[in-house]
Design goal:
117 residues; mainly beta; four-stranded antiparallel beta sheet; globular
């Protein structure tokens, strides 16, 4: 049971990146899935999540209008489209899946996103 992220990298301010997170060993059907980020010296921040229960995405104000989460249950993959990136978006981004029945969390290994000014 694991999540594997990909798609991070170095991009200039205003650029775009798409992160992917593939699940193996389980399906996303009964999970809330999302992305969190951790920047050096800062608290971990939720940047997006979506539940299979209602499919309503959540975004904090810091990324609203710039980030878009999506899921493809057939491919067991979730995506985070990040547009208009800013230097303050620089962080390690983690994929997370929470089972809606057991409340158990599964984490990916993280992928680095660096936005240069």
């Amino acid at each position: 049971v694991q999540l594997v992220e990909s798609g991070g990298g170095l991009v200039q301010t205003g650029g775009s990146l798409t992160l992917s997170c593939v699940a193996s060993g389980f399906s996303f059907d009964d999970y809330a899935v999302g992305w969190l980020r951790q920047a050096p010296g800062k608290d971990q921040e939720d940047v997006s999540c979506i539940s299979s229960a209602d499919n309503i995405p959540y975004y904090p104000d810091s990324v609203k209008g710039r980030f878009t989460i999506s899921r493809d249950n057939a491919k067991n993959t979730i995506y985070l489209q990040m547009d208009s990136l800013k230097p303050e978006d620089t962080a390690v981004y983690y994929c997370n899946a929470r089972n809606l029945v057991s409340n158990q969390h599964t984490w990916g290994q993280g992928t680095q996103v660096t936005v240069s000014s």
